[in-house]
Amino acid sequence: MKARLPSFRRDESGAATIEYVILLLPLIALVFTSFQIALAYHFALTAQKAVELGARIAAVRDPVHTGMPRENAAAPGARVGDSCALGGCAAPGGPWRCSGSDLGSADCDAAAFSAIFDEVGRIAYLLSPEDLTVTYSYAALGFAGGPFTPIVEVTIEERPFFLQFFFNLAFGSGEDSSRRLTLPAVAASAIAEDLSSTN
User: Fold this and answer.
1) HSE toward the beta carbon, residue 128, CA cutoff 13 A
2) What's this model's pTM, rounded to 2 decimal places?
3) pLDDT digits (tens, 9 = 90+) for 92-127
4) Rg of the Cα atoms in the chain
């Protein structure tokens, strides 16, 4: 038996098969993890393009928030026609924000929100109304007595990525939320036009 042991140690037949089996699983995990990260990057880029489109649409359509003023009120001591940038308008407060979770409230117009969500959802993958937020902010644009011209921001909130399996396979799973692969929040802004339109 002792005489056969050295010859068994020198026998290298089958070594390539063993090396192949040892390296195959990490290689598969690496390939699929790279694919998953590339897909998550693609999802994030399309979400960015979607909010840019959403901001342009929200800038020219009727406002989603019904409590937002329709015209700039003159500041004390100012006259109608004075520039808001030079202090001619009273700051109306704000920001005015609506998301999919706010649609039941009286402040959010469901039809106006749905028009923006439908366009953004055509581009962004796996989007739910709760992930989308439309915010209007006062920007001291226009003049006293003129139409209120806010800055419109459309945001898609951070959300979990649906392909978690291969990421967990490569980096380990756990209850730790820092190991969860999420799509980043993205936002885009536009300066609104006259929001008194009927489209």
Assistant:
1) 5
2) 0.74
3) 887 999 998 888 788 898 899 999 999 999 998 888
4) 28
Using CA atoms, how far apart are residues 194 and 160, in angstroms rounded to an integer? Answer: 37
Sign (positive/negative) of CA torsion 119, 122, 127, 129?
A: positive
Residue 131 token pair: 């992930």
- With bands split at pLDDT 50, 70 and 90, how would you rate the model's confidence at 20? confident
| DSSP-assigned letters across all residues of 35-102 | HHHHHHHHHHHHHHHHHHHHHHHHHHSPPSBTTS-SBPPBPTT--TT-BGGGT-B------EEEEGGG
pLDDT in tens, 167-195: 555 555 555 545 566 788 889 998 887 54
Residue-level pLDDT at 179: 55
Determine whether 144 is exposed, middle or buried from the number of CB atoms within 10 Å of its CB (0-12, 13-18, 19+).
buried
Please tell me the distance from the alpha carbon of residue 22 to that of residue 49, in angstroms, as a whole number: 42
- DSSP conformation class of 146: S
The pairing of strands 96-99 and 159-160 is unpaired
